Amino acid sequence: MPVVETSVFIQGDSAQAYAIAKRQEDFPRYMKDLDSVRTLERLADGGTVTEWIGRLQGRRMRWVERDEFDDAARCVRYRQTEGDLKKMEGEWRFAPEGQGTRATAVVDFELGIPMFAGLLEPIAKVIVRNNVQSMLEAIKRQVEG
Length: 145
Known about the structure:
globular, 7-stranded antiparallel beta sheet, alpha+beta, Alpha-D-Glucose-1,6-Bisphosphate, Chain A, domain 4
């Protein structure tokens, strides 16, 4: 199962970056690969269940995930509960670093095609890394204005 980890440095406050990351329904306005993010349920523990529709290399993808928000650690954890991949889970962390913020995203995913995993997963890993990096850069632009 491929794991992708990427990060960006943001010239801005980690609390502000984290607050932007929590407003997932706003993402399609400034993230080019997302068509929609819709909150399906707000959970008693403060988490959400969200439906995402986006594009990965031009291919339409849909998934539903459970999101957990750790305000103290400024971390968003998610786990796909249904969707196009066999598995997708990870986290976004926003930690103070110097005069700014280190935003880090980790994605653990599985395509669910065992016969072709050796061939497809290295390619998918590059595509997912580029997509996640693009999402972090979009948050960076929102913080930095």
